[in-house]
């Protein structure tokens, strides 16, 4: 079809709206033009809020989901924080070589800390957040002092100062608190996705309607892919007072649907059995497919004479899919089937060879295909010697189905920031083994206390993170044992680096130097907290430098000083005092370094610092020098 020229200059307003939508899709709304037609527009109040750390008031009517606390949630998502990730080597597995990450702490804090390092780097996000059933604990991101003290008195703040509150349906902010919690986290998480990235969110009927509206706002309505129905039970509950609940939802959104591609599922033997070749067609097995169209067109409504001489017509109110001329071509090419007796309505041959590359996933995932609640329960009890330590884990087979329809490339990252028992990490191990891939995971979980007197507590587990980390350790060890003879098993990464969200390694004065007083001057000799190690400082430098947390780290001695080299030459860090000219010269000559970082106190004077700069200019002029 020949395209008709528009014969007008481009509409720059529409172009500008489209550009804003790529950065702030939640700021695009609907309005009416002068003729009363609906068109896209920018919500300037919301755009102002995105660019402000204070609440921006606005009273314009608009199409969007509103609730008390939404603007505070937006500010919580956008505001920075003075925190860090501290490594826990003793909890990690293969710390030096693994590409996987497990983070303990508030997932909003963790997501913010990862923004620079993993901006636009995550291929797939899967989360299974609290469903807001009236029994869940939800994160509380903004507390007054009184509220925080109240929670501490009630035992809901643990040693990590986790901010959790049971969101009972009697609470007047029952929906609002949950919406604020999920909104802030999804907003930050979107920044981590690659342009071709995708997010899957498990949810039940309680909040699916609200979650859909939130995701439309954050990811853009056009990037909605599907609401997948997962059959989580294989039999209904006979004691249910209403229709038995046997399914959950999985909302699927792309970051940019024009960049996202879905991988086809492999065909099963059962599917292929439907194809045969009764007429010995040289093109191979085929099955008949309908030739009637869903929409009517008079041009395609015509009688067809079958090989037996019988005249047939399309179904009443319908027509054929092709023109009469095209049908004759298909008949002559032996691509039309008229039934065994040659007197049935025409059907088109669908050849197996044309569909061997796979099949599109359906929107209903049945329990016998992807697992169910009992599947996941058995997975967990098998790992923990018959003990069931965690309620409602997701089956790894369900997460593997998500992986099955994802087009992965080498070293892609999978993120789960409500990681619970660690099903996602377990699924990554299994999938890498089965498909010889090298996917990496980042898991985040708040160390929520286990239930008092539960089996988990009786077995010595204090919080969910302890269960999750142990599950990942056991799953990795089991896979290695069961597949010890499999080719390439030695390359399977079943390790993970553990980090804890904590306060910054730097004292407050580091961020507020104007608050130095005469009486605390001696405390400022070092701006680093006394209880922090070199590795604590190193990983905060990685965060501040936008460097991934899993790059290889080597410790070397240069001129008697300890130096950490990250990924060979990406970064060199030395926290030693009294750095000599001999050391600086040796370091500058050692590698073609991109960045080096020292402690500010390592230099006795400004002259010493200038000398360092001159040495690097001479031996490694492209190296960026920083201090903490």
Concise synopsis of the structure shown:
This protein has 628 residues and is an alpha/beta fold.
Describe this entry's structure for a reader.
The protein has 628 residues and is of the alpha/beta class. The chain folds into four domains: 15-64, no CATH class; 83-133 and 197-265 and 360-501, 3-Layer(aba) Sandwich (Rossmann fold); 269-354, no CATH class; 517-627, no CATH class. The protein is built from 19 helices and 26 strands. It has a ten-stranded mixed beta sheet with strand order 3-21-4-20-19-5-8-10-9-18, sandwiched between helices. A five-stranded mixed beta sheet has the order 22-23-24-25-26. Helix 4 (107-114) runs parallel beside helix 6, helix 6 (174-192) runs parallel beside helix 7 (208-219) and helix 13 packs parallel to helix 15. The termini are far apart. The model is unreliable at 1-10, 143-156 and 520-524 (pLDDT under 50).
Give the secondary structure arrangement, pairings included.
Layout: H1 12-23, E1 28-32, E2 38-42, H2 44-50, H3 70-78, E3 83-87, E4 101-104, H4 107-114, E5 122-127, E6 137-139, H5 145-154, E7 164-166, H6 174-192, E8 193-203, H7 208-219, E9 224-231, E10 247-254, H8 269-272, E11 286-289, E12 292-293, E13 304-305, E14 311-312, E15 319-320, H9 324-332, E16 336-337, E17 347-351, E18 364-365, H10 367-370, H11 373-383, H12 396-404, E19 413-416, H13 423-435, E20 440-445, H14 455-458, H15 464-482, E21 497-503, H16 508-511, H17 534-545, E22 553-558, E23 561-566, E24 571-574, H18 581-590, E25 595-598, H19 606-619, E26 624-627
Parallel strand pairs: 4-20, 4-21, 5-8, 5-19, 9-18, 19-20, 24-25, 25-26
Antiparallel strand pairs: 1-2, 3-21, 6-7, 8-10, 9-10, 11-17, 12-15, 13-14, 16-17, 22-23, 23-24
Helix pairs in contact: 3-6, 4-6, 6-7, 12-13, 13-15, 18-19
